[in-house]
Amino acid sequence: MADQLTGVGNRHRLEQALALEVERAERTGEPMAAFMADLDHFKQVNDEYGHQAGDNVLAAFGQLLREQTRATDILARFGGEEFVVLLPHTGMAQAVAIAERTREALALLQIEPVPHPVTGSFGVAVLAPGERAEGLIRRMDASLYAAKDAGRNRVVAS
């Protein structure tokens, strides 16, 4: 259940993994964090450089996520240019550090044929006791939009 273009999981894979990880966190009492990433001004990349350039950006970001995360983390394309990373056994400080490291690495990538840096906005949340998957996604999404509203190319945690 991988996304063909990016090599990370697809949304169905995310939904399955999220249900399992929420249940595991609840059972073990271990923290679980997650972040949602959205590529800034992605439509502009497609419009200015073509859909193949957009595909190159998506594929490069999928590869970057694999490089910046652990083997136990679950990576998925949520839709369009949005991605979610589940971070089992991870608290807020470590999750923010992973998201920040990923954001910085993305801004340094040269992705042909795009002549300028591609940036991303990131929203981080930690599963609250008794919270369901939908609540975690809603809070990540709210943090992501706070990052966009604050000027993009940043990490916001809730």
Could you describe the 3D structure shown?
This protein is of the alpha+beta class and 158 residues long. It has one domain (11-157): 2-Layer Sandwich (Alpha-Beta Plaits), CATH 3.30.70. It is built from 5 helices and 5 strands. The chain has helices at residues 11-28, 42-49, 51-68, 92-108, 133-149; strands spanning 32-39, 74-79, 82-88, 120-126, 155-157. A hairpin with a 2-residue loop joins strand 2 and strand 3. The chain is globular. The protein starts with 10 loop residues before the first helix and ends with a strand.
Offer a few descriptive terms.
158 residues; 5-stranded mixed beta sheet; 20% strand
Layout of helices and strands:
Layout: H1 11-28, E1 32-39, H2 42-49, H3 51-68, E2 74-79, E3 82-88, H4 92-108, E4 120-126, H5 133-149, E5 155-157
Parallel strand pairs: 4-5
Antiparallel strand pairs: 1-3, 1-4, 2-3
Helix pairs in contact: 2-3, 3-4
Calculate the terminal CA-CA distance, rounded to whole Å.
Answer: 29 Å
Largest sheet strand order: 2-3-1-4-5
Assembly state (oligomeric): single chain
CATH structural fold name: Alpha-Beta Plaits
Counting structural domains, the number is 1
Number of helices: 5
- Alpha-beta classification: alpha+beta
Quick one: CATH class?
Answer: Alpha Beta
In CATH, the homologous superfamily goes by the name: Reverse transcriptase/Diguanylate cyclase domain
Order of helices and strands, N to C?
Answer: HEHHEEHEHE
